[in-house]
Amino acid sequence: MKPVEIAALLTQQFGEKIIESKPDALNPWSAVAPGSILEAARFTKNDERLLMDHLELLGGVDYKDRIEVVYIVYSMRHRHRYTLKCRLTREEPKLHTVESVWAVANWHEREAYDMFGIVFEGHSDLRRILCPDDWEGYPLRKDYKYPTRYRDMPV
Amino acid sequence: MEAEIAGELMTLNMGPQHPSTHGVLRLELKTDGEVVHEAIPHIGYLHRCFEKHAENVDYPGVIPFTDRMDYVASMNNNLGYALAVEKLMGIQVNNRVRCIRIMMAELNRIASHLLAAGTYGIDMGSYTPFLHCFRDRERILDLFEETCGARLLYNYNWVGGVMYDIPPGFEKKVIDFLDYFEPLVDDLNRLLSHNYIFIKRTANVGILSPETAISHGITGPNLRGSGVEWDVRKDEPYLDYDEFDFDVAVGEGKHGPVGSCYDRYMVRIKEVKESCKIARQAVAKITPGDVHESIPKRGKPPAGEVYMRTECPSGELGYYIISDGSLKPYRVKVKSPCFTAMSAFKEISRGAMISDIVAIVGSLDIVLGEIDR
């Protein structure tokens, strides 16, 4: 399917829960309401027309006024790609996990939690993955302050 | 029954300084005697936060950082980033650049697979193949050194071109190398791949089903080892890969079930031969031209975002780049193939013996520099 058709299908299925779509962008995307991400993920994976079985990338982006979670999904059968986005507040970035849909999301979500402090509700093992467990702050946030010491060692 | 076993579990720590974890990987093994009930990988010992670095340098300045992810396949890492930025800026490169890039990428793939096969031999207790593999890999590194001066971290593929043109007579050296090397793959097969002990150690170990592989986002030789014919070079061609004649190697389950450690290893060996084929064709297609022709004076892409993936030796390496229209990228997110492969480790290793853990880690061909970034 072409990105325009995917965007239309998503809008048809989820109505106003699709906040915005840009199917003509270089990397076509749709923004989904954070509360509906699990349904949207299930739909994109299981619907016969989409069959997005491959979660290529899941990551956070800090836009200073909001935090976005980006899901790039790909169908190995139909060979089409689409991007879903979820906009969250900076104060309380929280949404449901999609690890039940794509198993790889488990680690990707841990990384997003580690780097941005995004909390994935219902995640089976949400703890830091790249930084040490007692690390303070979320390094990829734009207002991150570089620490000078870690456990009394200069960094 | 289960409760009884669970009562006797012992935690065993493997790594981070273990010779066969291929870097600084720590595995927390919950063992019942020799059997591993659960293997929990702990990563992050090499974490340098590449993605944060990338936000603080300009677009061409990111390339040396990409070298340091999968440090045994730097050419391929550079290539993915360069292609992503070119896609964002709408740059077209000439035929010479495309052919040189493909040639270098395939040579680097051979080098990376040789390292994977050689060290896998060591893991399985055979030392000689390692020396053979390193001897041949050395010749590829010599070729790279002649072109860009570096043996490991090349910084060769630039946005819009390559760093230096290949020196005169380089094509002949590549062909000479391929002529020398191709028969040696059969030697390696005789020495290691068809070795009875090696087959016994790997053929029934670490079975990865296609469903698990796809759900865990596994790509590259690890996915093909499970019998899924999937290669970005064929299925979503970049550069000119669609004009090249090569086959996609898949696991056949010749010894034991499909998706075993042996299949993953064999896919790499077969791919080495295919890479030789591609490199030969790339050399034949090189036309004269200026390799610096399309390098932009100022690397300032328009605002927007792009996702580009390429087939690296370890799998699909994806770059997701967001530009806000300034000189520096707003966000660079890397999809690392080794990271996703490692996320499936718990699944693959359930119920394996402790010595099989070594076989499974080696068969996934992980590079910790890329997992941790």
The domain tally of chain B reads: 1
The residue-averaged pLDDT of chain A reads: 88
Q: Rg of chain A to the nearest angstrom?
A: 17 Å
Summed up, the domain count of chain A is 1
So how many helices of chain A? 3
Textual characterization of the structure:
The complex is a heterodimer of chains A (155) and B (373). Chain A is of the alpha/beta class and 155 residues long. Chain A has one domain (3-154): Beta Polymerase, domain 2, CATH 3.30.460.80. Chain A is built from three helices and nine strands. Chain B is α+β, with helices and mostly antiparallel strands and 373 residues long. Chain B has one domain (44-341): Cytochrome-c3 Hydrogenase, chain B. Helix content of chain B is 48%, strand content 13%. The N and C termini of chain B lie far apart (42 Å). Classes of the chains: A alpha/beta (155), B alpha+beta (373). Chain A binds chain B through residues 25-27, 29, 53-57, 59, 61-62, 70, 72, 76, 79, 81, 83, 102-104, 106-107, 115, 128-132, 139-140, 144, and chain B through 43-44, 47, 49, 51-52, 87-88, 212, 214-217, 228, 230, 235-236, 304-307, 309, 316, 318, 320, 322, 330-331, 333, 335, 339-340, 342-344, 347, 372-373.
Task: Outline the fold blueprint.
The complex is a heterodimer of chains A (155) and B (373).
Chain A lengths: L2 H12 L3 E5 L6 E4 L4 H10 L7 E9 L4 E8 L6 E8 L5 E3 L8 H12 L2 E3 L27 E2 L2 E2 L1
Parallel strand pairs in A: 2-5, 6-7
Antiparallel strand pairs in A: 1-2, 3-4, 4-5, 8-9
Chain B lengths: L1 H6 L2 E5 L11 E7 L2 E8 L7 H5 L8 H5 L6 H16 L5 H29 L4 H21 L8 E2 L2 E2 L7 H24 L2 H7 L7 H6 L5 H5 L6 H4 L25 H25 L18 E9 L2 E9 L7 E5 L1 H7 L1 H5 L4 H10 L4 H5 L1
Helix pairs in contact in B: 4-5, 5-6, 5-12, 5-15, 6-7, 7-12, 12-15
